[in-house]
Amino acid sequence: MNELAILSKALIQERKDIILSILAGFIAGIAGVALFSASGYMISQTVFAPPLYTLIVLTSMVKLLGLLRAASRYGERLYSHRATFSMLSRLRTSFFARLIPLTPGILNKKRSGDLLARIVGDVESLQHYFLRVAYPPIIVVMVFLATVLFTSAFSFWIAGLFVLGMLITALVVPGVVLLGQRKIHGRVREQRALLSTEVTEVLYGFRDLKVYGQLAQREQQLQQASAALTVQQQRAAGHLLRGQSMHALVTFLISWGVLTLGAYLIIDGALAGVFLAMLVMASLTVFEEAAAMATLPLYKQDSEHAAKRLTETLQTSDRQTDSTQPEGALSGKQAVSLDLSDVTFQYEGEWRPALKDISLHILPGSKTAIVGPSGSGKSTIIELLLKLRTPTTGEIRLNDISVKELDEASIWQSANVVLQQSHFFRGTIRDNLLLNDEEHSDEQLLDVLAQVQLPSSSLTDVVYEKGENLSDGEKQRLALARAMLREGRLWLLDEPTSSLDYVTEERVMKHLFAQAAEDTLLMICHRLTGLEEMDRIVVMEQGRVVEEGSYAELMEQKGYFYEMKKIERQMIGEVGL
Question: Is RNA-binding among this UniProt entry's keywords (predicted)?
Fold first, then answer.
């Protein structure tokens, strides 16, 4: 697959501005050549003391060409940059839209710093594709051909020299630069991504590194990564400077060649002397348009490498996406039934499945708890229901509709979800409660805070990024309050009260059960207290369902759940002592 296909598609979408920028660039290039050529011709004419009207015409032409060049150059910059920024906007939107469905699987394979470097840095690098890669050759060919045709009217030999210079500038110089660039291909971007990754991890783990005395060691690694990036950037800059220097050398050699050949042709009588300065000025000017060709290979490889990393990011997922987008929608006005039929799920690279032949039927409006030891696959079930992951085998149906046919956005809209780790944004409590589009008054927000046992919290209280200034219990209660503000009829709760004391947990769950009285509720928990309120309890171990039934039925069976409950009572009794 061509890594730049996505860029070509984006350029086609901006074809109007691209065509206008090419037209303006061609006019600017030709106007520049004509401007300096006319200036050279005017200087030569003044030696022969021409009539005044001749100088007036030449002077006026120079002024008009100067204005035309400035206006067209402005138009070129305007349309080319507008096309570039619009293209980047489309790429960011498209990339992020395609990235979202790949979570959370992609987060398990890419370090967050590296992923951030791809989303920001690599997309930003693609701005050079049109301005530095696709655009320059078009303008160079158009301006050079027009200049060669103009020059051939005075001398075919000098026109041939222009063609030779164009070939060297467009092929030889970029080729030499490309040979040297291959040795450091992609190293700058990879080193920058490595540095971003290290910085991100140090910032996230600063407190733990400080406590365990490892901060100095990680700072040294950061310095080494920064030094390595500096070395690679210096090498890349050296290749860039080498290409520009070679182009300048070719420009002056061709100009000296035009001067020497022109002098010979004048002596031979094949060229009028008054045209020599004009041709020399034309050679100096036309090669200015080709300056971008010297650095084209560097930007081309940089763009290709960035596009490759972005494509690799989108292809790195454990989800099997369909070519057609699902069109079904889950109704949020009725309680949802959940059906899992022989569902098996295995993480990529794992030797055993996280879930094995799971079959569950949860009635609409029922209350179900899933219990079991850590690592038994309980949280994976919620991820599958939310279509964050795709089952390896088996089928999941919501309201008798396969999740494959449902748009994930409709599932998320219909579900009130509390995961083990809820994210909180820097802002206020009000900001973190109002994450959806629903309207809520301050009275409603304060009421729900009271229901989750946060009555003393103010809506204007500051929340740090990731809720760093909140305790684990406060985070869970704030996450529950956020879920209780939604109007979905499906509740998916993963350890929502694990950090709360028993008294607070009982009060919070009382309000939650009252609100979800007619809704479908699925709760994952380790604690076994309060499960008497559940219609059904599912016991899991090592990815399989080992028991299921009501609280009374499971206690009567005296099986796995009974033993778990017995151990919990003993632990609570010991704590009470």
Answer: no
Task: For residue 380, give the nearest of 358, 399, 364 by alpha carbon.
Answer: 358
* Sheet hosting strand 544-549, strand order edge to edge: 415-418, 490-494, 520-524, 367-371, 536-541, 544-549
- The confidence score (pLDDT) of residue 577 equals 35
CATH superfamily of 338-576: P-loop containing nucleotide triphosphate hydrolases (3.40.50.300)
Residue % of the chain over a pLDDT of 90: 21
What tokens appear for 474 in the block? 């406060």
Sign of torsion over alpha carbons 149, 154, 159, 162: negative
Which phi and psi angles does 368 have, rounded to 5°? -125, 135
Average pLDDT of the segment spanning 504-511: 90
The pLDDT tens digits for 352-369 are 888 999 999 999 999 999
In angstroms, the CA 346 to CA 355 distance is: 7
Is the entire prediction scored with pTM above 0.85? no
The residue ranges of every structural domain in the chain are 5-315, 338-576
d(CA 378, CA 538): 10
CA distance 513 to 399: 22
User: What SS3 state is found at 343?
Assistant: strand
**CATH superfamily ID and name for 5-315:** ABC transporter type 1, transmembrane domain (1.20.1560.10)
Is 5-315's fold the same as 338-576's?
no
